[in-house]
Amino acid sequence: MKRIVCFGPGPQFKGGISNYNTSLAKALDKFPDAEVHIVSWTQQYPAIIPRDFIDRASRKDLLEGTRIKVKYITNYNNPFSWGATFNYIKDLNPDIVIFQWAIALQGLPLGYIARRLMKLKNVEVIFDTHFVKQKEASSIDKFFSRYGLGKAHTYIAHAMRNADELKEMYRDKKFTITETGERAKEGNTIIKLYHPVYDMFQPDKNFDLEKVKQELKLKKHVFLFFGFIRKYKGLHNVIRAYARVAHQRNDVSLLIVGESFWQTLNPNSFSAKVKKALFGFAKSLLLKNSDNEQDYQPLKLIEQLQLQNSTTVINRFVPNEEVYKYFQVADCIVNYYLFATPSGVESIAYNFHLPILATRVGHFPETVKPGYNGYIAEPDNIDSMAAQMLNIIEHPIDRSRVAETADKFSWVNYAKALLNK
Fold first, then answer.
1. In whole angstroms, what is the distance from residue 88 CA to residue 86 CA?
2. Element (H, E) at 252
3. Side-chain half-sphere of 297: how many Cα atoms within 13 Å?
């Protein structure tokens, strides 16, 4: 029996990393000789961050029917809990511990726990890296990342760029890159694996397309933007590019579904005001002005560009049970990101065989093949973005090809590589 710990946000949290950690645990749990534990944060970030990270909308138990055990124990704000987390994992006597690495800010607790685990015998420490270089430029990101990722046996990179960044960050380490999961005999192993396709969201076989289109006031061709509204995801560019399409055609709609990342607390509450003030001060010390996105409000562009009649906005966190509706009603997903790490939204789209419109940033040139499973636009080029939106209408993508892409990115293959089976 191989005992595996998946460290990361448990299923009570919002967001792609929680979904990812849960899906990974479920994939590993399907192997009869695996015993899987999720060890989770209780609080993932400094207490001053003005945001609610708990999923209070979803009702389905994502771990129903599994053997997975969950322990919520690690509080970012309580270093004593970091030691308690190590002791808890050590007492499980695991063979493998997989850390989800998704933000440099978590480098201190993760680095501390990983360093102590590396001193144990017969435990493989793995970092599953959703990025290596931080999205937002911060003066201390490099320190947090270098410390946090510094001690591990194995790394997972979802794009070749991530693997190259690891080699650049740790020039003194000997890295061996593999796509099979075979571990190097000397030095560190980087397993190059694409972000698997989420199978936790399933299409409704009885979906009534026309009825939902009518409910959402959508026209013939539907472009979908889905997920947390954050600056790096480029919704402002999506809206501007869509405006050019909408001014040429009267049979298109833009469907925006997602929660504004920094607007989840009651702005009138005293605690929210205090958190916002403290967090704003901290960010002013650490970030360039252009990287502070607390006042990012791209939805205002809809009225400015007179797109109200062809744009539908669901500006809230969508529970898991509701996700299928928006992917089944759409014709494509629009990921016009400013910069990208492997995208959970892209992964959901593949599960619904939905073509991708993406910018030529990050991993997208590796996963999106123009004319096959989507189209690529040039970053920071509204003309190019609008042209590809028109292109996918005039030259639709065969969804069977998107299905072929989905088959390649299965959780089974991913789990096999992790277990070196």
1. 5
2. strand 252-257
3. 5
Nearest alpha-carbon partner for 91 in 115, 117, 110: 117
DSSP, collapsed to helix, strand or coil, labels residue 11 as coil
Alpha carbon distances (Å) from 334 to 94, 251, 261, 359 = 41, 17, 18, 9
Helices (H), 174-269: 209-216, 235-246
Q: Are 72 and 53 in contact (CB under 8 A)?
A: no
- Is this structure's pTM higher than 0.85? no
Can you give the pLDDT of all 421 residues of the chain as single tens digits? 899 999 999 999 988 899 999 999 999 999 999 999 999 999 998 887 756 677 787 878 889 999 999 999 999 999 999 999 999 999 999 999 999 999 898 999 999 999 999 999 999 999 999 988 876 556 688 889 999 999 999 999 998 889 999 999 999 999 999 999 999 999 999 999 988 988 788 899 999 999 999 999 999 999 999 998 989 899 999 999 999 999 999 999 999 999 986 555 455 665 545 545 545 545 554 555 545 566 789 999 999 999 999 999 999 989 989 999 999 999 999 999 998 766 789 999 999 999 999 999 988 998 999 999 999 999 999 999 999 999 999 999 999 999 988 888 889 889 999 999 8
Under 8 Å between Cβ of 416 and 179: no
Instruction: Round the CA-based radius of gyration of the chain to a whole number and report it.
Output: 21
Distance CA 389, CA 357 (A): 7
